[in-house]
Amino acid sequence: MTAYLVPLIAVGSLISCGVYLLLERSLIRMLLGLLLISNGINLLIIDAGGPPGNPPVLGHGSDARPTTADPLAQAMVLTAIVITMGIAAFVLALAYRSYRLHTAEQVGDDPEDLRVSQLSDPEARAIDADGPEPTSADDADQPDELDALPRRPQ
């Protein structure tokens, strides 16, 4: 099997740009990173599928191409495209919901992660040994607070 250099460079550049975008704080850039990585992987699957050949249907071949094309790579890429579109729709819905709740699409720092990162090593080991801290009932979010649309007065 011969692998051509140009598609492999395209795969590498798509995946590296996708990883760069995936590390951003913006949900839309994360979505674009996922889409670039998915397209890079799809191109890699098609490139690894082998050389082009006759269609995998009996009686529809030509003598110019001695082999039959592998239909598995094409079927896998079509399935991956459908899955990617489902993931893209889900991330877009998350971004829309985040924008409606916070009027920003940036992913913020988690306060608990910040608190734990500021602990010294002995304090962190003591917390790990004791288990998680008990939570109070005042900390729980009420469903009304999570609703993006304001309630109408009744």
Automatic annotation (TrEMBL):
Biased composition, class Acidic residues, residue ranges? 136-147
In which domain of life is the source organism classified?
Bacteria
Q: Which Pfam families match?
A: Oxidored_q2
- List UniProt keywords, sorted A-Z: Cell membrane, Membrane, Transmembrane, Transmembrane helix
Task: Region Disordered: list its residue ranges.
Answer: 105-154
Please provide, in alphabetical order, the Gene Ontology terms of the cellular component aspect for this entry: plasma membrane
Q: Where are the transmembrane segments?
A: 6-23, 30-52, 72-96
List localization entries.
Answer: Cell membrane
Where it mainly occurs, coarsely classed, is membrane
| Gene3D superfamilies named among the record's database cross-references | 1.10.287.3510
The annotated topology with respect to the bilayer is: Multi-pass membrane protein
Name the InterPro entries on file: CPA3_antiporter_subunitC, NUOK/Mnh_C1-like
Member of which family?
Belongs to the CPA3 antiporters (TC 2.A.63) subunit C family.
Kindly provide the name given to this protein in its UniProt entry. Na(+)/H(+) antiporter subunit C
